[in-house]
Amino acid sequence: MDKFIIDGGNILEGEINISGAKNSVLPIMAASILNNGTTVLRNVPLVHDVITMKQILEYIGAKVEIDGNTLNINTENINKTEAPYELVKKMRSSYYVLGSLIGRFGKASVSLPGGCVIGARPVDLHIKGLKALGADIELEHGYIKSRFSKLKGTKIFLEGMHGPSVGATINVMMAASAANGESVISGAACEPEVIDVANFINSMGGDIKGAGTHTIKINGKTTFHDTEYSIIPDRIEAGTYIIAGVLAAKELLIKNTIPSHLESLLVKLNEIGLNPIVDHNNILVKRKENFKSTNIKVLPYPGFPTDMQAQFAVLMTQAEGKSIISETIFENRFMYVPELLRMGADIQTEDNNAFINGPTVLEGAEVMASDLRASAALILAALVAKGKTTISRIYHIDRGYERIEKKLSNVGASIKRVNPNQEE
Ligand code: EPZ
Fold it and tell me: Which CATH number applies to 22-230: 3.90.800.10, 2.40.480.10, 3.65.10.10, 3.40.50.1820?
């Protein structure tokens, strides 16, 4: 298994281009199933989760070709409606094929994804929404099965006990796009990725209004047409490099972003004196010797994203004073804390809060990545740590960050990928 070896302390300088959003492209690939024809997707991040979704589409009979950052998908010869455990277990977002398969074929058999390290991650809201649309859903031997669904537009309230669900909103929106009549989803998630999927479906003839608000209206369609669509930039990848910049850069220009998608992070950085400069789609950041600590509480969009809290916690280890980070969405998203403690951070966790005392000098150590965003946080910590950090289990980072070591070494970081056979 590959590892990263990072020599900390280099000053970064230059430009980083942000790739397309992983959390948009995965449901959009699944939504391409709704059309019986071809879809061309541009600005696709070449990350491992995209390869897994490609394998799922190919398993059911679609043709998927990768040409640089473009995907050509042909869904004319889909001859299966099953997503097996072997593929779904690699990536939870495989469940996105549920909404589109039921939408197009009235049937699907998708393995239940199960929990994952960041929390239990149930799918009750997905099932509730699909059932409300008339899907005949049964749970059988670990699979969510639908055999003869005839979808009919309806009113659905989708919010759960942790707030709106991105995945359920998208899954139900996809199925409702192929239902007979109008659906209204209230309590919908407002994340930019929800808007991107709605824009994609509309680009192939769908009729979705209100995506990005808590109420989405969908006029179901019986047919869709071929489309070409460009994926929005990845706000979490951008946010991660923004933190790299304020931690370690003389000047770092983060290019191809949508700054409004990063508002909560940019506001926080301004508040603590790190003053990112926004110019159209670019954001310029630089390090500062002293900056203040602050508290964050993660919330659904437009609140501070849960996918950025680990990276922000690393920033807070370098800030002056105490900070509290509250995670309200997933119950187990502090897996990176013991690893940061091994690097010298001063952090205590209690329930869903991390209490951080800064600034601390971080020291290189051998650490292990536990999930995607935890891996990103460890890389950020290693960039500012004294000496060498070895991060193992970096397959997590490959799931969601395109060529991270290349992007960072291009701006001056000392980061290399090794596999144990090549290690010094
Ligand atoms: C999406 O996950 C993202 N994944 C996650 O990104 C992100 O952390 C999360 O949204 C929150 O923003 C993708 O887009 C592929 P949710 P999702 O349904 O859709 C509860 C990353 O690092 N819930 O919005 O699975 C759930 O347990 C990742 O890129 C139910 O109770 O998240 C959580 O507490 C990881 N029942 C809350 O809702 C359900 O049926 C929000 O989860 C569904 C969710």
Answer: 3.65.10.10
